[in-house]
What does this fold into?
Amino acid sequence: MQDVGESELVARIEAVLPPYVRAVCTRLADAGHQAVAVGGAVRDAILGREPGDWDVATSAPPEEVMELFPRSIPTGLQHGTVTVVDRSTRAPINVEVTTFRGEGAYTDSRRPDHVRFGVPLVEDLARRDLRVNAMAYDPARRELVDPYAGLADLRDGQLRAVGPTGDVYEDAVARFTEDGLRVMRAVRFAAVLEVPLHPDTVRGIVPALPSLAKVSRERVSDELRKLLATRQPSRGLRDAHATGIIASIIPALAARLAGRVEPWLTRVDAAPSEARLAAFAFDLVAPSKTPERVDRAGQKQVEGILRALKFTNEELARAAIVAATAGATSVSAWTDAGVRRLLADVTRSHALIAAAVWRADGATALADRAAAILERGDALALGELAVTGSELMAALALPPGPQVGKLLAGLLDRVLADADLNVRATLIALAAELAR
Ligand code: ATP
Ligand code: MG
It folds into this structure.
């Protein structure tokens, strides 16, 4: 981030602060409370990135927030969070308003044992994760509140954990141990913001890994999904691997990555967003001896790993079948017939993603051949043959039964070997031969 003055920063935030957020803060301020926009949206506004959800933090206790905004919903009263609903816009907008709070110890590495209201804003900011996420904007005073030098981290290009000691390593260990998810947030923000973690922040991840093991798998995969959706996931994945985050969440992947980290990072970065999880999981499957086939055992293994991490069935099915073609990219002598057989096994619905991962893996010849086959529309499945089962039965006077299915499978085999055979008359003649 360029060195810009305080007034320029205020102007940047003012330019994107939504009117409903300002209105919520103003009403709270008029009632005598402090109310600020806080966290990620302030950080993003400063960076000139499109802010996601705007969060408001206030000195007003939750009951008073409820009174001031009759349409509010008590979404998390025990944490001091009230959702204020603004119906003045066509699509109603929700703003989470959370009372300033301090936190007790985290004995379970997931959530604080108790929260305390009635603390000043600086204390509320101190319980957050990274310094860049511990900034606030006070619209009433037109003032950026940055007691932990989050701005300096953006300027100096080094992310650090917020904390009272000022020792980068100690603060990191303390924040990351309290809530194990924070180590994943740290590497995710390094990739999202394209600002590297301070070396002592990276070191601080290691002692906190036992906390990560206690975090729900849904939260872990949510973070991984967000990391994989960034422009260059390697900006976070490299540290995630080096510190042992990957070994903590997917031990089998870390074991397979030994000596192969750079190709893994390059492949993930090069893959389009919808192919990222597959590119990430690709190393899980050892190259098989039959590269023209999906490795079904490998596919099952990847499905199991991603299911345990609570990825959706759709996500894990796609990533697993593609990862189970990992053996294909180390073969260089491909024929169209071989690639068609592989694509048929992958199935058409996953074929484009598979080809994208092959390309990202540097298997250009394979990816080019696959792209040409898909573009030509060569048949890859029984339903894509130029003849149907009932047409075969009529032409060859066959009774219904398993023989028809076998004939179709035999025809597909021939058509995968030679796509020019996929013409109705040719296929009927071929079937007559096969039926003999
Ligand atoms: P994004 O919305 O882009 O994922 P964000 O920083 O806004 O990023 P949110 O999950 O929306 O993240 O949280 C809003 C703010 O709450 C954060 O900026 C941070 O200050 C705080 N926060 C969120 N999750 C944690 C956490 N696990 N530990 C500490 N602070 C957190
Ligand atoms: Mg957010």
